[in-house]
Amino acid sequence: MYLKEVTFMKIAFYGAAHEVTGSCTVIYANGKSIMIDCGMEQGPDIYENCTLPFAPSQIDYVLLTHAHIDHSGKIPALTAGGFHGKIYATAATVQLCNIMLLDSAHIQESEAKWRNRKAKRSGDELYEPLYTTEDAAKALKQFVPCDYQKEYTLCKGITISFVDAGHLLGSSSIKISVTENGITKTLVFSGDLGNYNRPLICDPKNPSNADYVIIESTYGNRLHGERPDYLGQLTRILQETFDRGGNVVIPSFAIGRTQELLYLLRIIKEQKLIQGHENFPVYVDSPLAVEATELYANPALIDYFDEETLDLLQRGINPIKLPNLVLSISTDESMLINMDKTPKVILSASGMCEAGRIRHHLKHNLWRRECTILFVGYQAVGTLGSIIINGAQEVKLFGETIQINAHIEQLDGISGHADRDMLLNWLDSFSSKPKMVFVNHGHDTVCDEFAQTIQEQLNITATAPYNGAEYDLISGASLIQGNTQRIEKAAHTTKQNETPAFRDLMAAGRWLMSILEKYRHAANSDLKKMTKQIIALCEKWDK
User: Fold this and answer.
1) Are 361 and 248 members of one domain?
2) pLDDT single digits (tens) 402-458
3) The domain boundary residue, chosen from 365, 384, 410
4) How many domains are there within the chain?
5) Fewer CB under 10 Å: which end of the chain, C or N?
């Protein structure tokens, strides 16, 4: 085959391009296709997504930066579609995915049942879940646990290694080295880079060198400012709310943020910082968060914790266990929480209020003036969390209009993401300047802003790819621009009138285009033969 004779390396962006969620990137090299992250989108699309121009069975390997659903959430759909390869991730990420992907599958199935009950009554088409628990269980068998700072060989000419990204237990930046026809190119995917000096986990580490860097930009145009007094802020909010007789409801990501908050709440109780409500109950109402909280005490994952946490564990102190902590698992247990009038803390997922039990707690507490809804994480534009933070007077939950009377608060600076200067410092610490930086995983305008900042402050060529964009990894040249058409300016009727069969046809067309690109340097005889076949196909169907 000509691919063995011709150098062909490229990178393509299929998710989190000019958007914050749904990370998915593919490297084509050595005749292999390597997918980095396969995430689910959260919140509305800003741009039309390109259908993947290949069947899942054509992916050879998946590399996963961390377990959050916007990076891992579509892996079971990939395996259900025919992907049979290995999925490489850190050991901690594998452990977290064991609970997160099964939980996500359960949500998919539950939503399908709910939607299909309505569809049967209205005569609409039945809804198929994105994947099932069986699909998720199958995907989990394909995971390969890896260690930090160790090199792994995927195949001849392709090696990978994982470096701590400091964002979540087991989160990583991934370094990929590709050698083809005597040419070696190194790529580093930042993954989600963490904030510094956070509880439980270590600070981000640097992978040292790269020809190309793919970097997130969630906070690419913002600074966290001076490190806030998290403990003081949280203590004030709790004291004021409990004195009013209300609940503090915290929409929190089940893994990572929930455990950080339990760490702070343990200190508040240990130091007796709350007056008059010393024994206030703390409910963790999320089966996923409960499993994750227990996982954080797993001795097998001790290498992933920071020195302060290790010191506590060595002294026999569980850093996230506190008095009057109630772990709620069943639906009945969840419903009882709001029947108890005792002022309490309710930690529940999802962090952006898009799904899960948090929506029920918002329904019961948003209208109560004595309560507080406390946001502790990033809220993507268009999500329910973002709508509430931005001053909505009412929202709809389960078909019912709910007035927003509760106090709306944000814990300043408690972010799991690095800010602009942290991102720049991480980039600047590479031993040599990368040839090019690709900026993704950020809001539409933030991606462009941060790319410009990189060029101005670090003098490194940077660009923010669009969905479907492709770049040659030998020259760095753009091959395909990608989709720059914003959804609000697009003809929505076109998308609505598309049938699944038509979308499959368009995907096949894009697959054909990607094959043609591979034949750029093929022999003229092969090109003429393929051209003749395509013309015959066109003539047949154009009639």
Assistant:
1) yes
2) 999 999 999 866 778 999 999 999 999 999 999 999 999 998 899 999 999 999 999
3) 410
4) 3
5) C
